[in-house]
Write the structure tokens for this entry.
Amino acid sequence: MIITTENLTKKFGQFTAVDQISFSVAEGEIFGFLGANGAGKTTAMRMLSGLLAPTSGRAKVVGFDVATQPEDIKRSIGYMSQRFSLYEDLTVLENIRLFGSIYGLKKVELSQKATALLEQLQFTEQRNTLVGALPLGWKQKLSFSVAMMHEPRLVFLDEPTGGVDPITRRQFWELIYAAAGRGATVFVTTHYMDEAEYCDRVSIMVDGRIAALDTPAALKVQFEARDMDEVFCASPPLLKSVPHEDFSRIPAKRILARHTRPT
Amino acid sequence: MISIQNISKSFNKDSVTALRNINIEVERGELFGLIGPDGAGKTTLFRILATLLLADEGRAEIGGRDVVRDYKAIRRTIGYMPGRFALYQDLSIWENLQFYASVFGTTVAENYERIKPIYSQIEPFKDRRAGQLSGGMKQKLALSCALVHKPDILLLDEPTTGVDPVSRKEFWDILQLLRGQGLTIIVSTPYMDEARLCDRIALLQKGQILEQNTPDGIVSGHSEPLFSVRGPNMFALLQAVRLWPGTYSCFAFGDSHHAYLRPGAKPADLKDFLHQKGFENVAVEAIQPDIEDIFMHLLPA
């Protein structure tokens, strides 16, 4: 398991933002982390990425403890926030070089990676364009690729496709699939419910708790819903009263199927 | 009620075209949707209508008044909710509302009936600072502030962006209610599923209108056959469908893929091709396109 949490909790004063969540994520999984605004997703993600210390409970991420080894976690993961995180007044190539060196890539390795990345995104012609002049969808694809440059085993994506046009949004998910195909684990939040269908498993947070967690297919059966939008909209009233459940025993069921390529 | 004629706008010494020759007429009481992603020009158009930005070419009228000449009168009749949360984060809900009322020379009490359906949902938290509200509550406060001077027209720039599906549905219920009260509403959104909730829509991309009609009118205007493809191993299946020469385009759509085929290409042949590639139990079915399918189909490949 690349992520395991046990009663992970964060309180801000009297307010409990994350309330004893217990779950695990398997290596190579695309894990959808859903929930209403204010349900505690961002707080939970900040704890899992080593940016915020938990109030109580435990979590291990890529083998490190979030409370005692946050710096090790930060070095081992990729992170892309919902707000665009590259430097707008640097060029595409300058951003790649900057983040590559922050992640500790050596000079030769960095220049090879930069060339490969630009080719993969078909950005070679735009290498000297200021990032601020790129359309949002392009920025998000670049931002994702930069977050993956040091080949982290786990990447956190916080609403990566918000406001992105429908084709680029799907191209972004194809980048996610390609990264998962290379073995990376992807932990992603989104408000697009069609994107929830692309995840191996999905959890739904309600009022700081994980109220449901399973494959999209199983959740649709559980909530007698036709699609994930119905699952999401049905869940809060149904789930507000659930007791604290330990989801860490639920296995990742079918995450290997997509690694087979067509012949 | 709102008339937009040949509006164009460029930025950075004409190097970036934000809007190109936009024409839209919105009737009184209509709920009109500007549908398009980031960079489509939605915000620029709203700023021109809200009298905050001058167009390079063309003209626009709101309730028969010119947005350039009669900007002062227009500002009293419109409620504008910008895309970025523009309220005062360190004022409470109640203080924000009072402030907006006073700017327009009115009081909250005077217009309470108009804002009640929305404001009553956040009233229990009225002493909480705006900066500490959840996304859904911020949005309800922003709408209350845009309504507090009883405007005839609402200009809502991406009110549901970044908002979860439950809060988005609640917000659209409120919009239907306001339309029922006779308000004229222009709303923009990057969520294609919200297009269905509008009376008429314009599909916008890179500053241009791709199409403008009722949602049903747009759908029925596109007879190109569309197929859903479903089977095991969806990502590999997507790549395989694209390999078939008869496929024009194929994209993931939730739990199925949607494929436009080239003229003359038969879905049965696609199934055979997929079978040869080792995909068993693939279902290929003719389906009705929705707005998102059509929007993607209209974009240059």
User: Anything to note?
Assistant: Residues 253-263 of chain A have pLDDT under 50 and may be disordered. Residues 166-181 of chain A form the longest helix (16 residues). Chain A has one domain: 3-85+153-259.
